[in-house]
Design a protein that fits this description.
heterodimer, A: alpha/beta, globular, B: mainly beta
Chain lengths: 393, 144
């Protein structure tokens, strides 16, 4: 039996720093996705929300919050929280419902309103919480991105200018994206002139936090056929695996890796797409485009290698050759990525799938990737969460 | 009053996380008595090795030297609970690999260590230095 589900509709609220209630962004995205799918809200049988931790109780029960705002209509409801992978876990919940036959068509939605500045931990004296401890000794999110970036420089000879090329490429991609927050093109000189945040990463190497919302309408293949959308893009894999002990890389919010005395060290990021490729039966060589979590410019290079789009250490060359630019061999972040969006945590993994859907339908306008047939997403967040989704025609 | 009387430099920011031996400080972790896995921060209930059912741990002092894995700095003041004494002075941060424990531990770089002097693979050692609020923490510096 096929484990595929269909993407009938997608919708987004533009990313920005709008300062409005997160529900507004989610409902706008959901209504757009319903219209795009041609499905009536009352026909949705399952609502799967991605939670936000920054907006009080309504955010913790996002599925129900969005359902009420769209108008209670008696559907089953779920809320998922998995840091940056929240949207993918909400999507995985919908897929399970559909594949088990418990429902035919579902809404998956996530949205966030974010505060300004560094993301910070809950208040109080909490030395049992690794997230509190690392901030106590001065370790922020950019610290981790910068340690990985410097490691690339030490291991592969990458340079800050290589990292700047990623920003220039993504800014070019997102410049015409109506949902992107930053739509300005930049030069290497612009990046080099931006303030240093965590050496070697400058302000323009690191993604901001944003408000935004994204939604998908997904269904069984039979339902898609029934409403005349048999040709809709399909979700072929959703990987949400945990790391495997002993995790080799020091990850947010930890201050140390696992000790690899008793078990060999295992990379986490690479495990996420590997599971997705296995599940979909797709070879990395078949990928037409990728949407990856460029929390920093240098991290996009790590993802390119984790997705097996090139050899280890070769990603900077790939970017310089233009292979990851739209029109190149394997465009990465045609949406503009986090560089142009900033991160709206519960919406971001869904926004990645929205972009793949538009690309695979040939509806991406000036961002269109030629002959887009197979798309993959990848993201990673705190506490061992991450995801990778494969969408095909 | 006791705190005010004690020498400020001997008050740890995280009590019990490192020895207060100023000359040769060590991080304090634990080790599973069953599979030998080290833990820092300490773990004293259940072993996290998926193949180990260990529930007893011995306290261990971790190696005070290691190899530099990567490094960066904080050019902007971190948010609370980091305590900043104005004007904020940027500080370095290192990731150091401990050979015996086979783990990487983060920490600030000691004052005065320039990033330009660092290279992955450099031998590093643990020292104690105050944070901005005067409380002690562990830091890394190139081994003497």
């Amino acid at each position: 039996m096929s484990k595929d589900i269909a993407i009938l509709g997608v919708g987004m609220h533009p990313w920005g720093k709008w300062g409005r209630h997160f529900v507004e962004y989610g409902v706008k995205a959901a209504r757009d996705a319903l219209a795009d799918a041609g499905v009536h809200w009352r026909d949705i049988q399952f609502i799967s929300g991605a939670a936000t931790m920054r907006n009080g109780y309504p955010g913790y029960v996002a599925g129900a919050t969005f359902a009420q705002a769209l108008g209670w209509q008696g559907a089953q409801v779920n809320t998922s929280y998995a840091a940056c992978a929240s949207g993918s876990q909400a999507l995985a919940a919908a897929r399970s419902k559909i594949l088990s036959g418990e429902c035919e068509v579902a809404l998956v939605v996530g949205a966030d309103t974010t505060p300004k500045g560094f993301l910070k931990p809950q208040a109080g004296e909490r030395p049992d919480d690794p997230d509190w401890v690392r901030f106590r000794i001065g370790i922020t999110n950019p610290t981790y991105f910068a340690l990985y970036a410097r490691r690339r420089m030490e291991q592969y000879g990458d340079t800050p200018d290589d990292f700047a090329q990623v920003k220039i490429k993504n800014a070019g991609h997102g410049a015409d994206n109506p949902y992107a927050r930053y739509r300005k093109k930049f030069t290497a000189a612009d990046v080099a002139a931006s303030p240093m945040v965590a050496d070697p990463l400058r302000l323009m190497d690191i993604c901001a936090t944003s408000d935004g919302g994204a939604a998908l309408i997904v269904s069984s293949l039979a339902y898609a056929k029934k409403i005349g959308k048999a040709g809709a893009p399909r979700i072929r894999a959703i990987s949400t695996v945990t790391p495997t002990f002993a995790s080799a890389l020091v990850e947010m919010p930890d201050i140390a890796t696992d000790s690899a005395v008793a078990c060999a060290p295992q990379p986490f990021r690479a495990a996420l797409p590997r599971k997705a490729y296995e599940e979909a039966g797709v070879d990395p060589k078949e990928v037409s485009l990728a949407e990856v979590y460029d929390l920093s410019t240098a991290l996009e290079l790590d993802w390119i290698e984790d997705l097996q789009l090139c050899e280890r250490g070769a990603a900077a060359r790939l970017v310089r050759e233009g292979a990851t630019t739209i029109g190149g061999r394997i465009p990465v972040n045609p949406s503009g990525g986090l560089a142009c969006f900033g991160e709206a945590v519960p919406a971001q993994a869904l926004a990645q799938v929205c972009e793949l859907t538009w690309q695979l339908r040939g509806q991406a306008g000036s961002r269109q990737v030629c002959n887009a047939k197979v798309g993959i997403t990848a993201n990673q967040g705190l506490f061992g969460h991450g995801s990778s989704v494969i969408v095909t025609c | 009053m006791t705190d005010a009387c004690a020498p400020a430099e001997l008050v740890p920011a995280l009590p019990g996380w490192f020895t207060l031996d100023v000359a040769r400080p060590q991080l304090i972790g634990t080790r599973c008595t069953c599979c030998g896995t080290y833990y820092f921060p300490r773990q004293s209930t259940f072993c996290r090795n998926p193949d180990c059912s260990g529930e007893t741990f011995e306290e261990v002092k971790l190696s005070r030297t290691g190899t530099l894995w990567s490094f960066t700095n904080a050019a902007y003041a971190p948010p609370e609970p980091y305590i900043v004494r104005e004007p904020f002075q940027p500080f370095g941060i290192a990731a150091v690999e401990l050979d015996a424990e086979r783990m990487i531990v983060l920490g600030q770089l000691a004052k005065g260590v320039e990033l330009s002097a660092l290279k992955a693979g450099l031998a590093m050692e643990l020292v104690l230095e105050p944070l901005d609020d005067g409380k002690l923490t562990w830091k890394w510096k190139p081994a003497a």
